[in-house]
Design goal:
eight-stranded mixed beta sheet; binds succinic acid; 7 helices
Length: 301
């Protein structure tokens, strides 16, 4: 069973600045906010602080009917920190930091985002969060799923938690976005964005929670093999890849997910340090247009 944000709930109520209505969408993750405009929150310290606190609690926030300008979108996201562009997806030339995720019948399927991932874990410092606004949505399909990776870690068997504590893994833009590029372009991408090494379990810098931190960009563990556990090389390569696949698959557990049905001017704000997401690619050849700001994050530890 999937859990969808219903159309008529919190966001449908009349906006009343300073009194945010909060409707949790699942027991694990996600809340819909009503009675708030992000254009106001971009200019109002108290309102912004309230949203920031709600983000830490619910990990992803949803808002409907945000008829805001691109400048408002950027100004709101900028309250969290500096914004960054994406080396593959283009940005709006008039609004640096506003990444366009536009798909239509001409978009090659390999440019879709249907893998569970945190944004930008191929960076040394992946984004702390993102603000995604829907410009155009297909009549049916095109939902996005978010996952609570704190809960995914908490639910792991104890012996797995012990095995992965201290493990580190590589994350690669080359092996993902780069895989469909001609060799020279792929190598140039990798030269600009070398693979990044991160802990398999990171600690959320604000809540201090443990987060399972492997995703669709993770290629391999870097310290699985030690002189203690390797008899001959092939002893542990399958063990490492099976463990990594098992960990990556935890994001697909419905009990730690929320699924959101987009409408024009719906917005999602997520904490990229403790969530993953998956944009469901079930609408081709219809068009889907999203605009995303990514907020510069810190180095996971
Ligand atoms: C993303 O992966 O950041 C975009 C998600 C979406 O388009 O729903």
């Amino acid at each position: 069973m999937t859990i969808s944000a219903s159309a008529g709930s919190a966001a449908a109520r009349a906006p009343a600045r300073g009194s945010i209505q909060v409707a949790p969408l699942t027991c694990a993750i996600g809340a819909e906010l009503g009675g708030v405009s992000l254009a106001d929150a971009a200019r109002d310290d108290a309102l912004f602080a309230e949203i920031r606190a709600l983000l830490l609690k619910h990990r992803v926030l949803f808002l409907r009917d945000q008829e805001i300008t691109r400048a408002d979108h950027v100004a709101f996201a900028r309250r969290f920190g500096d914004l960054e562009d994406h080396p593959v997806a283009g940005s709006d030339p008039d609004h640096p930091g506003l990444v366009r995720i536009y798909k239509d019948r001409n978009s090659p399927p390999e440019h879709y985002e249907n893998a569970y991932h945190c944004d930008g874990t191929w960076r040394e410092a992946p984004p702390m969060g993102c603000v995604l606004r829907c410009i155009e949505t297909p009549e049916v399909g095109g939902d996005t799923i978010w996952v609570n990776m704190v809960e995914a870690h908490r639910l792991l068997p104890e012996h797995v938690k012990q095995r992965i504590a201290g493990l580190r893994a590589m994350h690669s833009i080359e092996a993902t976005f780069g895989a469909v590029m001609p060799v020279s372009k792929r190598r140039a991408l990798k030269a600009s964005y070398p693979d990044a090494e991160h802990p398999v379990v990171r600690t959320h810098p604000e809540t201090c929670e443990k987060v399972l931190f492997v995703d669709g960009f993770t290629t391999h563990f870097v310290n699985f093999h030690t002189p203690d556990n390797v008899r001959v090389g092939q002893d542990f390569a399958p063990g490492a890849s099976q463990l990594l696949s098992y960990l990556i698959s935890q994001a697909a557990i419905p009990e730690v997910q929320v699924r959101f049905r987009w409408r024009k001017n719906s917005v999602a704000i997520w904490d990229n340090r403790c969530t993953q997401h998956y944009a469901v690619q079930d609408y081709w050849p219809a068009a889907r247009k999203m605009e995303r700001t990514g907020i510069v994050g810190d180095r996971p530890c």
